[in-house]
Design a protein that fits this description.
Helix content is 29%, strand content 18%. By secondary structure, the chain is of the alpha/beta class. The longest helix has 23 residues, at 227-249. The structure holds NADP nicotinamide-adenine-dinucleotide phosphate (NAP). Residues 55-58, 138, 144, 146, 177-183, 185, 202-203, 290, 313, 337-340, 450, 452 line the site of NADP nicotinamide-adenine-dinucleotide phosphate.
């Protein structure tokens, strides 16, 4: 019987995907795993985002790993700290912390002679067979390019870098720039604190009023006792997200009409004042920007201590924000809820592939990958949640699981010595991107708005078909689309020749 090779793998990032990959690799019998995490704890997005009101807008029972259901969620849409606690619990239960090196960022990863040479901020080097890049999508805060931003004398911070030392109460004047998903969660909390809150809105957003509800002790008891009830919740949530939400934004007429109806009715009946309602009415089609799932924002923005400002920001001074109508809005605190740079992915680290190709150069014109995961000239490198992953209002955990299985299937082939190096064929990437582009034509994302979904060419970097189709297409790697090379076949039988994950001083 042929003996399998044992690969060495570096996983970059200990967020939701990094934890998942460590578990999956270990379950597959791979033990030479190093997870490099730049911060001092795991959790990724849920560790970073601690702003008031932080929660998930994907139903909790669906926002869990399939192998680790959680019948104990306190809310239908779980709050940030509870999600963070879930990931910490999973990491402990599956004993993956032992693979994680905290406070060690990857600064440089380059492919040479069939191996990845990974350098870290601790001046260490690892030499491995595979790199799994689990750096997530939205983790580089975007700061607005507004004149005078640096001159503000009060406290200023991004929502992803919340300053918990700053008291927010009746005596504080807070300004919030931005009205995206994050702002819709944070603003009601700020308003409820009694602070005077000025919301600087550039573009209004459509809001779906999906109610959050508390899951009481009896419901939890039932779900703990009868596992099938929890499974039903999960299936129902998945069905709803796929057959209503995802289809509504990817050109399915009935769902599109329904989603549009719910959002428009929500605006009509939630906002009493006609002038305020018109200020909050988007001009683009529902779903063009990520639909906000929220029941608190409209209520809060009508409170006397809330001020919706739509005149546009002219500049920021040391005392506050001056709008284009010349009005000065004096502030003590300025919150930047201005989103993230979605296309940084693994950057700013240096990723260098074949022929010394730097990722900045490879992606200088457009950010493309084969099936979101594989990049030409970067063999044995897997980009998790890469471009055209079916993000939208679906669970990223489910997406990572599907991609994780795909990666494991390729690594398995390597273990059976079917190849040494793997990367996509250029024509396969072209065909994949043309296929995606054809599907994007009918989607809401090209519905006349600006959003973080769009790349520099104005193309949404999303998956335009159904979730089931994506799962089906990802179920087995199409080896005909991939270039496989066997570098060792000339001088060995290609088996048992992988070096152990070596660590040396860089
Ligand atoms: P976002 O959706 O990109 O919103 C950024 C906001 O900042 C927009 O309102 C934008 O206005 C505004 N903005 C940016 N630059 C500005 C400037 N120079 N002047 C004035 N306004 C400016 O960011 P986000 O709210 O952080 O959400 C990002 C994503 O994170 C979401 O789409 C979602 O995927 C994820 N998220 C998820 C959850 C969850 O519950 N699962 C919660 C929060 C966030 P324009 O619209 O005019 O550009």
């Amino acid at each position: 019987m042929t003996q399998q090779r044992t690969p060495s793998v570096v996983v970059i990032g200990a967020g939701m995907t990094g934890i998942l990959m460590a578990i999956k690799l270990r379950n597959a019998g791979i033990t030479d795993i190093t997870v490099l995490e730049k911060k001092d704890n795991l959790g990724g997005t849920w560790r970073e985002n601690s702003y008031p009101g932080v929660a998930c807008d994907v139903p909790s029972h669906m926002y869990t790993y399939s192998f680790e259901p959680n019948p104990n969620w306190s809310n239908f849409f779980a709050r940030g700290p509870e999600i963070q606690a879930y990931f910490e619990m999973v990491a402990d239960k599956y004993d993956v912390r032992k693979f994680i090196r905290f406070n060690e960022a990857v600064t440089d990863a380059r492919f040479k002679d069939g191996k990845w040479f990974v350098e870290t901020s601790e001046s260490k080097q690892l030499v491995v067979d595979f790199v799994v890049c689990a750096t997530g999508i939205l983790h580089h805060p975007a700061y607005p390019d507004i004149p005078g931003l640096d001159t503000f004398k009060g406290k200023m911070f991004h929502t992803a870098e919340w300053d918990h030392e700053q008291a927010i109460n009746e005596s504080v004047k807070v300004g919030v720039i931005g009205t995206g998903s994050t702002a819709a969660q944070a603003i009601p909390e700020l308003i409820n604190s009694g602070a005077s809150v000025s919301v600087f809105q550039r573009t209004p957003q459509w809001i779906l009023p999906l109610g959050d509800f508390n899951i009481g002790p009896t419901a939890k008891k039932i779900m703990n006792k009868y596992a099938f009830t929890h499974k039903i919740m999960r299936r129902f949530a998945t069905f709803f997200m796929e057959h209503f939400f995802t289809k509504a934004v990817t050109g399915h007429t009935i769902q599109k009409i329904l989603l549009s109806f719910f959002c428009k009715t929500n605006l009509r009946f939630s906002i009493k004042d006609k002038q305020l309602r018109e200020k909050l009415r988007p001009e683009y089609q529902v779903g063009c920007k990520r639909v906000i799932v929220n029941k608190t924002f409209y209520k809060a923005i009508q409170r006397p201590n809330a001020h919706l400002i739509t005149q546009g920001i002219d500049r920021i001074t040391e005392n506050g924000v001056v709008t284009k109508d010349g009005k000065m809005h004096e502030l003590d605190v300025l919150v930047l809820s201005t989103g993230f740079n979605p296309f940084n992915f693994m950057r700013p680290m240096n990723l260098v592939g074949r022929e010394s190709l730097h990722i900045d150069q490879a992606w200088s014109k457009s950010i493309k990958a084969y099936r979101s995961i594989l990049l030409p000239n970067y063999p044995n490198f897997f980009l998790m949640l890469g471009p055209n992953t079916p993000i939208g209002n679906f669970s990223v955990i489910a997406m990572s699981e599907v991609q994780g299985n795909y990666v494991l299937k390729l690594i398995d082939k390597w273990r059976r010595s079917e190849f040494d190096e793997i990367e996509p064929k250029p024509q396969a990437i072209k065909a994949f991107n043309e296929y995606v582009k054809r599907g994007l034509k009918g989607t809401a994302w090209v519905g006349g708005c600006q959003s973080w979904y769009l790349d520099a060419e104005g193309d949404p970097v999303l998956w335009p078909y159904t979730w089931s189709q994506w799962v089906k297409e990802m179920s087995e790697p199409k080896m005909g689309d991939l270039i496989t090379t066997s570098i060792m076949s000339g001088n060995s039988d290609g088996k048992n020749c992988s070096k152990k994950n070596e660590e040396v001083a860089a």
